[in-house]
């Protein structure tokens, strides 16, 4: 080739193959049809064909398809003996090949060689007894030949091998086709017997089929017995909801509604809840069809109970689920069942000894005790009271009182003992609680109990113990003093108040002082009240104390009350001049002004008006937490005239502002001369 440059048009291998396919260049023409006209030519054809088959077999003896094609070709020539010989040779090579046996037997049956076919089937089921297809074909052939006894005999031989479920049902259906019900029942019994002894087919559906067979043929007693045997066989360890649903539907068909209800309840009590959904559904449908309102409610309650059981099993410390479960059980179940659920609930003690984990748990004990006392229907009231007492005592023993306690439990226990008219036990319980774990709530409850019993000496002792335990509790001091006041011992009450205000630390001192002052006012000890106000003002200069002091003087009802009140306001105003909280000073002046408007003269009113501050708006710079500028903020401030007189700089500032304002007005007038001309003309 002179020009070795690539051609302008390139051709790929794919294009070459596609063109060859399109033009059919590789297809060979079909061989010509050959017509055989005489015996010699036929024999020659047979010889060539047999030689081809034999060569193929010789090349690979294990390819069974070559043997089958060879035998089928001989069969097509009606050379049955030769075909039989080929099949036998093939079986010598691979007797485990199922297709080979089937083709061999089908050839014999096709050519009506019944005995040969029987012989082949016998050999097949003897050699390969676990191939069910041989048995099916064999029994079908015998049945088609009308040899019922022979077919039954083959089935019997098959059953000795304990085949799968379908084989037994085929045998049963065979007997039913010939109306042999007793024989079918016997086969079912053998089938079930294998289930019991050998555990070949321990499946619920086999029992159900047997029972339905009996029901279909109107042997209802036998069917019921089969169901009962099935329930007994599976027991409580391997219960299946399908068996009980089928049993219940059978009884429903027989109009035995009470039996149905018993079956459903028995199953629901024993089958795990997650496996009983279908059972619940069928039970609900049954009750809606044949039950009354109570029955429907029972099934709904049962369903909810199972749901709660699942919740508490998943998380035993889910006390809210226990509360819901107990509420349900209390509304429907007997006392023993409720007690059992309560015992299961309280057995789940919180694993951590921290009060926040016990707050929900402790209500289980409270509800248990209240149930035993109020709702349990036992033989006698004494037994109820004793059970309740045991519940309270067990709960008290369980609580770790050294770390925390629950005053509610102690108080409920004491109240219970009082209801039982057992006062010593109630006092003992409360005394024990105060000794083990004193709390404000326990003291208050014990004192309230003794007050109701009018045991005032005991109340005094309890208040003393209480105040030793919590001397900062102002409410206790006040209540103690009020008790002494009610009892008429004024000196003791005053002494208690004096002790109280002398405490170094108090939680609500303002309430205590107010109570002490109100006490003295009630006793009309005005001088002592004034002294109390003076003592209080030494501790605090709060505006409300001054206003209260002034109002006290005004309400004293004497001639000098107005002058005293005005004097108090004067003192308060002087004292609060240095106060940083200007709003409090404004509050004082407004109270003083209200007083003067009601009781004062024009002179005093004018004076207080001069003391009232001026409210002005100011701006101040804000700073963020990181110190950066956060903008400006507007706020209101008060400027008091008294402060202005003492600060000349403020007066100078006011004069400067006035001068600036006058300057701005004069500049505006100079900028607008036309306006002045118009004004002069007008």
UniProtKB/TrEMBL annotation:
Annotated segments matching region Disordered: 662-682
Ranges where the Pre-mRNA-splicing factor Syf1/CRNKL1-like C-terminal HAT-repeats domain occurs: 65-355, 380-534
Pfam family membership, one: HAT_Syf1_CNRKL1_C
Gene Ontology cellular component terms for the protein in this record: nuclear speck; post-mRNA release spliceosomal complex; precatalytic spliceosome; Prp19 complex; U2-type catalytic step 2 spliceosome
Location(s), subcellular: Nucleus speckle
Coiled coil segments of this chain: 519-585
Bias (Acidic residues): 667-682
Entry keyword annotation includes Transcription: no
Keyword vocabulary terms for this entry: Coiled coil, mRNA processing, mRNA splicing, Nucleus, Phosphoprotein, Repeat, Spliceosome
Major localisation: nucleus
GO biological process, one term: spliceosomal complex assembly
Functional summary from the UniProt entry: Involved in pre-mRNA splicing process. As a component of the minor spliceosome, involved in the splicing of U12-type introns in pre-mRNAs.
Family stated for the protein in its record: Belongs to the crooked-neck family.
Name of the protein in its database record: Crooked neck-like protein 1
Organism taxonomic ancestry: Eukaryota, Metazoa, Chordata, Craniata, Vertebrata
Gene this protein is translated from: Crnkl1
């Amino acid at each position: 080739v002179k020009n070795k440059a690539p051609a302008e048009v390139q051709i790929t291998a794919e294009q070459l193959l596609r063109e060859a396919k399109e033009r059919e260049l590789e297809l060979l023409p079909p061989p010509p049809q050959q017509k055989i006209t005489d015996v010699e030519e036929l024999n020659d054809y047979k010889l060539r064909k047999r030689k081809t088959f034999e060569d193929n077999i010789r090349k690979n003896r294990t390819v069974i398809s070559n043997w089958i094609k060879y035998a089928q070709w001989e069969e097509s020539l009606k050379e049955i003996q030769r075909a039989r010989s080929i099949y036998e040779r093939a079986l010598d090579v691979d007797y485990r090949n199922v297709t080979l046996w089937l083709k061999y037997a089908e050839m014999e049956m096709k050519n009506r060689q019944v005995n040969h076919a029987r012989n082949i089937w016998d050999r097949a089921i003897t050699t390969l007894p676990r191939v069910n297809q041989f048995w099916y074909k064999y029994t079908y052939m015998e049945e088609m030949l009308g040899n019922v006894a022979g077919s039954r005999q083959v089935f019997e031989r098959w059953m000795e091998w304990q085949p799968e479920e379908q084989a037994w049902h085929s045998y049963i259906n065979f007997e039913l086709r010939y109306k042999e019900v007793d024989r079918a029942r016997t086969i079912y019994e053998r089938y079930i017997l294998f289930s019991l002894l050998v555990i070949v087919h321990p499946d619920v559906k086999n029992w159900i089929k047997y029972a339905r067979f009996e029901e279909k043929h109107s042997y209802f007693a036998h069917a019921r017995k089969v169901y009962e045997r099935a329930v007994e066989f599976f027991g409580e360890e391997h219960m299946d909801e399908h068996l009980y649903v089928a049993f219940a539907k059978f009884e429903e068909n027989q109009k035995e509604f009470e039996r149905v209800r018993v079956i459903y309840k028995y199953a629901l009590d024993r089958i795990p809840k997650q496996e009983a959904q279908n059972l619940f559904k069928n039970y609900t449908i049954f009750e809606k069809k044949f039950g009354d309102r109570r029955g429907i409610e029972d099934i709904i309650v049962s369903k909810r109970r199972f749901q709660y059981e699942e919740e508490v099993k998943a998380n035993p410390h889910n006390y809210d689920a226990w509360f819901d479960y107990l509420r349900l059980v209390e509304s429907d179940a007997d006392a023993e069942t409720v007690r059992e659920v309560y015992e299961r609930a309280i057995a789940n003690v919180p694993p951590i000894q921290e009060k926040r984990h016990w707050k929900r748990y402790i209500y289980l004990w409270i509800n248990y005790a209240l149930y035993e006392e109020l709702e349990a229907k036992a033989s006698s009231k004494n037994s109820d009271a004793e059970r309740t007492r045991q519940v309270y005592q067990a709960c008290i023993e369980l609580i770790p009182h050294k770390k925390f306690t629950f005053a509610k439990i102690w108080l409920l226990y004491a109240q219970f003992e009082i209801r039982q008219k057992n006062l010593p036990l109630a006092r003992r319980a409360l005394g024990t609680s105060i000794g083990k774990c004193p709390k404000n709530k326990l003291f208050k409850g014990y004192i309230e109990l003794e007050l109701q019993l009018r045991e005032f000496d005991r109340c005094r002792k309890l208040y003393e113990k209480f105040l030793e335990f919590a001397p900062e509790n102002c409410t206790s001091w006040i209540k103690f003093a009020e008790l002494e006041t009610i009892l008429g011992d004024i000196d003791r009450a005053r002494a208690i108040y004096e002790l109280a205000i002398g405490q170094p630390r108090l939680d609500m001192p303002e309430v205590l002082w107010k109570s002490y002052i109100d006490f003295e006012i009630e006793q009309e000890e005005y001088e002592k009240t004034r002294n109390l106000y003076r003592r209080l003002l030494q501790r605090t200069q709060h505006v409300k104390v001054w206003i209260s002091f002034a109002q006290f003087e005004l309400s004293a009802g004497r001639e000098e009350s107005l002058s005293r009140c005005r004097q108090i306001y004067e003192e308060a105003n002087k004292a609060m001049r240095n106060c940083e909280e200007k709003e409090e000073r404004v509050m004082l002046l407004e109270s003083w002004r209200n007083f003067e408007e009601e009781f004062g003269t024009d002179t005093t009113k004018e004076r207080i008006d001069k003391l009232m501050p001026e409210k002005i708006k100011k701006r101040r710079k804000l700073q963020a937490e990181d110190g950066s500028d956060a903008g400006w903020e507007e706020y209101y401030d008060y400027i008091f005239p008294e402060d202005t007189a003492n600060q000349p700089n403020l007066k100078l500032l006011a004069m400067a502002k006035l001068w600036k304002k006058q300057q701005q007005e004069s500049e505006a007038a100079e900028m607008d001369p036309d306006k002045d001309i118009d004004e002069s003309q007008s």
